[in-house]
Design goal:
The chain is an alpha+beta fold. The protein has helices spanning 14-20, 23-29, 41-48, 60-75, 91-103, 108-121, 129-133, 143-150, 153-168, 190-199; strands at 5-9, 34-38, 176-179, 182-185. A four-stranded mixed sheet has the order 2-1-3-4, with helices on both faces.
């Protein structure tokens, strides 16, 4: 069976959200599956690269706000989040995913979509384990179980190891789709990634 596509993303990334709604269909068209790999832009961009968050960057931040809203309108997506508001603490959502992947691997894709929908479509604050546990969780997950999992040392270690692995793999942005070792950074590169899959690369 062909190798899965490695989809690196941060839950606070609007472009990651847009890509998450398309990547499974893209993979399926080429007989592939998706391996979900949340990362942390705060580590890759701010700590490793020494850059400001995208929305805090002069000139570029204003463009991105316009671009995100423009794309949402084009796709008929409702964004319940104020792009000028703080994104809060990104750790609980990412820890929740890795805890679910560890203990309920069959629910990991559903958990990605549930977290992204809560954060971007509903504009919810996911800054605490309790907040994460209060969203519309995939069937089979209990809120108390999820809250405890997010707060656990295990979830913290799983996320820390995953972020280190993403940095080691050269991932710095969300989304990044890795096709057989070839990275495509940015939502606007999904089309090129699909062409690569269709042709075998160039």
């Amino acid at each position: 069976m062909p190798a899965p596509l490695h989809f690196h993303f941060d839950f606070i990334s609007p472009y990651g959200y847009f890509a998450s709604l398309q990547v499974e269909q893209l993979a399926a068209r080429h007989g592939r599956t998706v391996e979900w790999r949340p990362m942390l832009l705060g580590v890759a961009v701010m700590k490793v690269m020494g850059l400001k968050p995208l929305l805090d960057t002069p000139l570029k931040g204003d463009y991105v706000r316009r671009d995100v809203l423009r794309h949402a309108r084009k796709q008929g997506l409702h964004l319940g989040r104020d792009l000028n508001a703080s994104v809060g603490n990104p750790l609980p959502a990412a820890r929740a995913f890795y805890w679910v992947r560890q203990h309920h691997p069959e629910l990991q894709a559903a958990m990605v979509h549930a977290l992204y929908h809560a954060f971007w479509a509903e504009g919810k604050d996911l800054s605490t384990p309790e907040a994460v546990a209060s969203i519309a969780l995939p069937p089979g997950l209990l809120p108390a179980e999820v809250a405890a999992g997010v707060a656990s040392d295990e979830a913290s270690t799983l996320l820390r190891n995953a972020v280190s692995a993403s940095i080691a793999a050269g991932v710095f942005g969300s989304p990044t789709l890795v096709v057989d070792g070839e990275p495509f950074w940015g939502f606007d590169r999904l089309g090129e990634a699909e062409e690569w899959l269709a042709t075998g690369g160039w």
